[in-house]
Design goal:
alpha/beta, twelve-stranded parallel sheet, nine-stranded parallel sheet, 7 helices, globular
């Protein structure tokens, strides 16, 4: 499986986690291009990973897609979870939209909530979101209607549309509430400077909060650097003490992305539950405590192997010499740390990184177990 499709599969299965439920039937597809033509009806959930997907027909279920280009012109009688370079929704979504991408445009109807992460977001003038809109984007243009609240953060925001409830935003640069806009509740925003607000567009109170003292950010940066250096030190110890195991875990990330995600999710959810069950019993207390320690350590070191994988991919090498691995680890781990500390979207990146790392650790441990069992060592 190529790196391109591995990344899309990773995003696709991460999106599955934020869906409230999954139907018993599903249609899973991994291909270059998928078109659901006008008049075509699919009575399943659709899971897609590829270059592009266009929906002109009807999906009676959820659509979960990771692609370079995603277009929904038809009807989805369920939820949409999408990740891609360009996402355009001009049709109707009965339930929620959860989308992450470079440019996201909604110009149709959303029956429930919308959760948007990305570079640019446009809510077109024909768009209607029945409940709340939550964003974490670079630039936001709100020309449509949100029947409840707008929340989140953006570097820049322009609004000509309607929010029937409150608007609560963290703004990195500028916000403009232009003539024609309407806010039925309060406007509360945190920004370095006052917003440009047209007269008589806010029915409630307008509250401007100044961001916290930037000196606090310096301490956060210092803390992040220390955290990176500690994790790098632990990673170096792994590479020196257990180079074969470390490389095997790293190789599993690119070789089995789907299995990694499945095993990572199971490890993340099932392990603490099992530990609690063991702690309830008198006999199982020692094993439960050991399981908790393994769980905490695995959560911490999971980022190391993803960092090594990223670094080796950048340098196009899995060179066995330790010094090359150390360089790859240092660069890759730095990229991972920057990603997980990005505002808002960093939470999603951190989750993906941890689940990938946990899955690779679990898969490698299981491979070693099978090997020992095959040799009748256990």
């Amino acid at each position: 499986m190529s790196v391109k499709y591995s990344v899309r599969f990773i995003i696709l299965f991460t999106l599955l986690l934020i869906l409230p439920s999954a139907a018993s039937a599903s249609d899973f597809r991994a291909e270059e291009r998928l078109v659901i033509a006008e008049g075509e009806i699919i009575n399943d959930d659709v899971y897609f990973a590829g270059n592009s997907i266009t929906v002109d027909g009807i999906i009676n279920g959820d659509l979960i897609a990771a692609a370079g280009e995603i277009k929904v012109n038809g009807i989805i009688n369920g939820s949409l979870a999408a990740a891609g370079g360009s996402i355009a929704v001009n049709g109707n979504i009965t339930n929620d939209i959860r989308a992450a991408g470079g440019t996201i445009t909604i110009d149709g109807n959303v029956g429930d909530n919308a959760l948007i992460f990305g570079g640019n977001f446009i809510l077109g003038r024909n768009a209607s979101i029945n409940r709340d809109l939550t964003v974490g984007v670079g630039n936001a243009v709100i020309d449509g209607t949100v029947n409840r609240d707008i929340n989140g953060g953006a570097s820049n925001m322009e609004m000509r549309g309607t929010a029937m409830g409150n608007v609560t935003m963290n703004i990195g640069n500028n916000m403009r509430i232009l003539p024609g806009a309407r806010i039925g509740g309060n406007l509360v925003y945190t920004a370095p400077r006052p917003a440009e607000i047209a007269e008589d567009v806010v029915s409630g109170d307008t509250i401007h909060r100044v961001p916290p003292d930037e000196r606090r950010d310096v301490f956060g940066i210092i803390g992040g650097i220390i955290g990176y250096l500690w994790l790098l030190l632990v990673g170096i110890l792994f590479l020196v003490i257990a180079p074969v195991v470390s490389q095997r875990i790293t190789d599993n990330i690119s070789a089995n992305p789907l299995k990694n995600l499945l095993w990572g999710i199971l490890f993340l959810i099932v392990t603490p539950i099992l530990a609690v069950i063991l702690l309830i019993t008198i006999i199982g207390i020692p094993l439960g405590l050991i399981l908790i320690v393994i769980y905490i350590i695995s959560l911490y070191i999971s980022r190391i192997f993803v960092g090594l994988w990223v670094g080796q991919y950048i340098f196009k090498t899995s060179e066995k010499k330790t010094r090359y691995k150390l360089i790859s680890l240092a660069i890759g781990l730095l990229i991972v740390f920057i990603g997980i500390n990005l505002p808002i979207i960093g939470i999603l990146i951190h989750f993906i990184v941890v689940v990938l790392g946990l899955g690779a650790i679990a898969l490698t441990a299981y491979d070693y177990y099978r090997g020992l069992k095959g040799q009748k060592s256990i």
